[in-house]
């Protein structure tokens, strides 16, 4: 029996190294059934974590920790405690449990003089610190420990954590260089653990999101394609998957963005309020971009005080002609963050728009200037673009369309470099309005480019605004029939979405959960899809979806 358990243990370890998570799970389950050793429990915890069962992973790892303590192996117990601390914080959003496990690991380090493990304790402390200076100090301590004990995995993780700290402090170029180095080393296999790729990838996506460096994020996502193909998505911490969805949203890959955000929501629980609110707010941003204001509003119900909801709610109030309410929400958000921080850029630009709508042009102009200066000081293209667009908006409101033009052109160039098609299209609309009758041909060209971009994305509301601007310039705009702007046989974008889900085999209940609507609403959409396509059953609709949507959406 002991021999059989050892054989299963060896098979489980080999499967883990190969990234065959289901095979590893089965092998470790057999080993645990025959002999529930600490090693078998730890392996099972690792396998199910990669399979997405975080709760089970925590149970098995906690059992492994207890077993290592009983067999008087404090080094292994301490390592498990460190991993549990990270899992509780990054996957479950439970800071109390995370702090408890980290304290346990630190006590083992002190009591048994586990100097090599001290660097890992410092690393996790750095990631959990709200003080940027303290976080940087702890990350450097972890890096020093890694080099002292030749721990390649810790060195790569510490480099990425340090890079993230520097980006948070506004030292973007310096921080990004360290993040690039850590990503190269981890994807190149310099570390011995696949978890190193997960850690460095998440630090990269967090930092690129903060710095709005979506171009770099996209490049590293593509560089990780081989890893993703062999082992699965490296953005396995809940917050990272949410931010990954945000990057995909910003760069125009909306179908992928929705899939990632829905996965993040499934991974979270109602008790994980911080993580769930972030994912819901990102999904609401997608709905706003698609012109679905009511759905966006429903998504953030109950999360109105979540920091990520401020831009969503501000946008909704602006769209409804309520700039005073928008400004109140955005000013409150601005007071909660340092106006010099990267996180302040999007709400500040939106606040400028609200103040312009209220006629408070002097306050808006001062705010827009500070935003542009912040971007230049931090060397952040996205903040520069937002600041320049805000300045252009203020000048247009003041009647200086000629003065607004260079600011808008600068913003457009930056958004295009960053591969942010929605923001580039929105900027083109402002530029077209600024050009107006003074350069009618250029205005028409910009408006047409914006309309094409919006139609490609499925940004229905913005496409309607672009079409209206073209009509004001004497041009009748017709829909180009691109993906997302109507779909096959006159389906609305929502009906195309329902058709796609029918093709995936989802029931009405599952579709209602996916779309955040009632089952009755789904039934209504399904009936309309069948009627418009003259289909007799869901089976025919599924077959139609397989034929038509695969062809029409291949470009995504």
Outline the structure in words.
With 556 residues, the chain is mainly alpha-helical. Among the domains are: 1-113, Tetratricopeptide repeat domain (Serine Threonine Protein Phosphatase 5, Tetratricopeptide repeat), CATH 1.25.40; 126-236, Serine Threonine Protein Phosphatase 5, Tetratricopeptide repeat (Alpha Horseshoe), CATH 1.25.40; 488-552, Orthogonal Bundle (Arc Repressor Mutant, subunit A), CATH 1.10.10. The protein has 30 helices and no strands. It has helices at residues 2-18, 21-34, 38-50, 54-70, 74-90, 95-112, 115-128, 132-148, 152-168, 172-187, 194-210, 214-223, 225-231, 238-250, 254-267, 273-289, 293-299, 309-319, 323-336, 345-358, 361-378, 381-397, 401-417, 421-435, 440-457, 460-472, 493-503, 508-515, 519-533, 538-552. α14 (238-250) packs antiparallel against α15, α15 packs antiparallel against α16 (273-289) and α16 (273-289) packs parallel to α18 (309-319). The longest helix is centred in the N-terminal third of the chain and has 18 residues, at 95-112. Residues 479-486 and 551-556 have low confidence and may be disordered.
């Amino acid at each position: 029996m002991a021999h059989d358990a050892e054989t299963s243990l060896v098979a489980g370890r080999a499967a883990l190294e190969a990234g065959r998570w289901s095979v590893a799970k089965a092998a470790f389950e057999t080993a645990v059934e025959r002999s529930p050793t600490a090693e078998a429990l730890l392996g099972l915890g690792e396998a199910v974590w990669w399979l997405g069962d975080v709760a089970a992973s925590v149970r098995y790892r906690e059992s492994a920790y207890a077993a290592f303590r009983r067999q008087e192996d404090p080094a292994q117990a301490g390592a498990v405690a460190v991993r549990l601390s990270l899992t509780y914080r990054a996957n479950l959003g439970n800071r109390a449990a995370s702090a408890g496990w980290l304290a346990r690991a630190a006590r083992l380090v002190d009591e048994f003089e586990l100097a090599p493990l001290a660097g890992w304790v410092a690393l996790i402390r750095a990631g959990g610190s709200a003080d940027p200076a303290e976080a940087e100090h702890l990350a450097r301590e972890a890096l020093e420990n890694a080099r002292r004990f030749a721990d390649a995995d810790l060195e790569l993780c510490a480099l990425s954590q340090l890079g993230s700290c520097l980006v948070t402090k506004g030292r973007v170029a310096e921080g990004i260089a360290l993040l690039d180095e850590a990503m190269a080393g981890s994807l190149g296999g310099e570390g011995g653990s696949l978890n190193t790729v997960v850690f460095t990838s998440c630090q990269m996506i967090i930092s690129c999101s903060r710095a709005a460096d979506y171009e770099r994020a996209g490049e590293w996502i593509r560089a990780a394609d081989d890893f993703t193909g062999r082992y699965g998505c490296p953005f396995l911490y809940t917050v990272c998957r949410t931010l990954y969805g945000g990057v995909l949203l910003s760069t125009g890959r909306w179908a992928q963005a929705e899939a990632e955000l829905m996965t993040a929501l499934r991974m979270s629980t109602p008790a994980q309020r911080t993580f769930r609110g972030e994912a819901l707010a990102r999904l609401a941003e997608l709905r706003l971009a698609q012109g679905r204001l009511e759905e966006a509003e429903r998504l953030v119900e109950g999360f109105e005080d979540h920091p990520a909801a401020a831009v969503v709610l501000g946008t909704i109030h602006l769209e409804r002609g309520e700039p005073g309410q928008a400004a109140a929400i955005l000013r409150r958000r601005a007071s909660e963050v340092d106006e010099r921080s990267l996180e302040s850029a999007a709400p500040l630009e939106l606040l400028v728009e609200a103040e312009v709508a209220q006629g408070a042009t002097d306050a808006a102009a001062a705010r827009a200037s500070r935003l542009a200066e912040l971007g230049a000081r931090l060397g952040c293209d996205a903040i520069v673009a937002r600041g320049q667009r805000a300045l252009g908006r203020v000048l247009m409101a003041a009647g200086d369309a000629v003065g607004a033009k260079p600011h808008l052109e600068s913003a457009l160039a930056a958004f295009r470099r960053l591969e942010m098609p929605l923001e580039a299209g929105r900027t083109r609309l402002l530029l077209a309005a600024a050009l107006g009758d003074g350069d009618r041909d250029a205005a028409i060209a910009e408006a047409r480019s914006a309309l094409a971009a919006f139609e490609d994305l499925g940004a229905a509301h913005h496409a309607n605004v672009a079409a209206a601007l073209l009509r004001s310039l004497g041009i009748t705009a017709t829909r180009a029939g691109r993906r997302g702007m109507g779909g096959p046989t006159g389906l609305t974008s929502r009906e195309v979405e329902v058709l796609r889900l029918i093709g995936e085999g989802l029931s009405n209940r599952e579709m209602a959960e996916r779309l955040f609507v009632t089952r009755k609403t789904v039934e209504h959409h399904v009936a309309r899809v069948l009627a418009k396509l003259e289909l007799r059953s869901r089976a025919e609709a599924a077959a139609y979806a397989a034929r038509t949507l695969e062809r029409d959406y291949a470009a995504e």
